Amino acid sequence: MKIHSHTPAGDASIGERRVPGLDAAWSLRPCQPHDRTAIQDLLRRAKLPHDGLEAFFNSTFVLAQAGTDIIGSVGIEVYGRYGLVRSLAVAPEWQGMAIGRALLQDRLAWAKSRGLIAVFLLTLESDYFARFDFKRVARDSVPPEVRRSAEFSSICPETATVMALPMNYSDEDLRNGVRAKYAAIASEVKDRSTNEGNKTRASCCQPSSCGASENPITSGLYSDDELADVPDDAALASLGCGNPTALAALQPGDVVLDLGSGGGIDVILSARRVAPGGKAYGLDMTDEMLDIARQNQKQAGITNAEFLKGHIEDIPLADGAVDVVISNCVINLSTDKRKTLSEALRVLKPGGRFAVSDIVSTGPVPESVRRDAELWAGCLAGSLEEGEYRRLLQEVGFEEIDIKPTRIYDAANFCGGDANADTKESGKTNSITGLFMGAFVEARKPNR
Ligand SMILES: C[S@@+](CC[C@H](N)C(=O)[O-])C[C@H]1O[C@@H](n2cnc3c(N)ncnc32)[C@H](O)[C@@H]1O
């Protein structure tokens, strides 16, 4: 495959752009099935193969268009959690205007938004892609699902250079990924709740690529009595990994704060336990989850609870406002855990308790897993190692720290019998085998 080399011309903005010497502007747009002939034409002129591309024309290709002319194209074929860049081409008369750069950057941003782990390509012009941080890799190191693609197995010459770009996710990317995931789950819960025939629990805290088998993390956490005490929709939206309300020994009159309250199950249960005289706050950053929680509160007839919008790293409550901080499978999602823990300490009264269910790792989590956006949003990649959890709690000022396992997970749990072949082959299950447990984390704010 020959990829055209373009000289980047300044800032590669995506969208309208005047082109000197050519009385036209170009912009990027998604590819449509009717573009097929124009793309084939462009690729033929660029001497690039166009076999087997049709299947990807709808969703994963973008085009550069000037007037009515298609002047550039690029696509990313998706294989499991990996992408393969194809057909980066710019019409000869439009080269040197950073159109190739804009096309490629658009697709790399898209690959990130999809949570892909890495993208690959085959090229005869590796210098061009080196500018975008693609590195040469051995053919053998390419995941089998990508190697089976037509491009790898038959279209490109053996002499083509294989290059890879791992997707590095920033803290902001990770947080946006978390919000998007839980917003989507909240919508799914709403749909299920209105569909009487399908009142099954939402599946979270495990990679979505692992299928929808009984969730080993979120299932069976609450007793029948507790579930009878909350609206069906609160149980449907329950996404925790423990039952902090049961373990926290809440007393009537306590003020409780639930960090990352989701659909509100623990806030409702806490509100009942601290009545009379007490109050339960829920804090969440996702509007869609807050909507569900407030509806559940109304349905449960709870008046001593309040749901707040905000980040657990910046709690919108005054110093010393609460007796107990609880949380259920959320601190692992925080991209700044020290800040989260010191905020928890700040809002506690002297002598106040931290009583949190969370996923904790039993050993070092490999860097490749750490920066995997999907495993992060699924509560695994961001989990603290037990010793690190203790150290951070102590450093921010907690004492009487205790971490007890409540559930030990193994790889079969995470990606059970119905795990798809891509997940298994990509080695993801291997890298998380035996590494995570559900735990109850307790600590106290000093009484002075
Ligand atoms: C795994 S769910 C747990 C929900 C709830 N605790 C439960 O047990 O059902 C994670 C929730 O935490 C929220 N969340 C994640 N990171 C957050 C952050 N940094 N600040 C506030 N909320 C956050 C998400 O919006 C989501 O509702």
In short:
By secondary structure, this protein is an alpha/beta fold.
Question: How would you portray this structure in words?
Answer:
The protein has helices spanning 36-45, 99-113, 126-130, 144-147, 150-155, 171-194, 224-228, 232-236, 244-247, 265-274, 287-300, 337-347, 367-370, 373-377, 386-396, 411-414, 421-425, 428-432, and strands at 18-19, 22-30, 61-66, 69-79, 82-90, 118-123, 135-136, 161-166, 255-259, 279-284, 305-309, 322-328, 348-361, 384-385, 399-408, 436-444. It is α/β, with parallel strands linked by helices. The protein folds into two domains: 18-167, Aminopeptidase (3-Layer(aba) Sandwich), CATH 3.40.630.30; 172-444, Vaccinia Virus protein VP39 (Rossmann fold), CATH 3.40.50.150. The chain has an eight-stranded mixed β-sheet with strand order 1-2-3-4-5-6-8-7. Strands 9, 10, 11, 12, 13, 14, 15 and 16 form an eight-stranded mixed β-sheet that branches. Strand 12 (322-328), helix 12 and strand 13 form a beta-alpha-beta unit. Helix 6 (171-194) packs across helix 11 (287-300). Mean pLDDT is 83; it is low at 1-19, 206-213 and 415-427. S-adenosylmethionine binds next to helix 6 and helix 10. S-adenosylmethionine is lined by residues 178, 182, 204-205, 238-240, 260-263, 265-266, 284-286, 289, 311-313, 328-330, 333-334, 379.
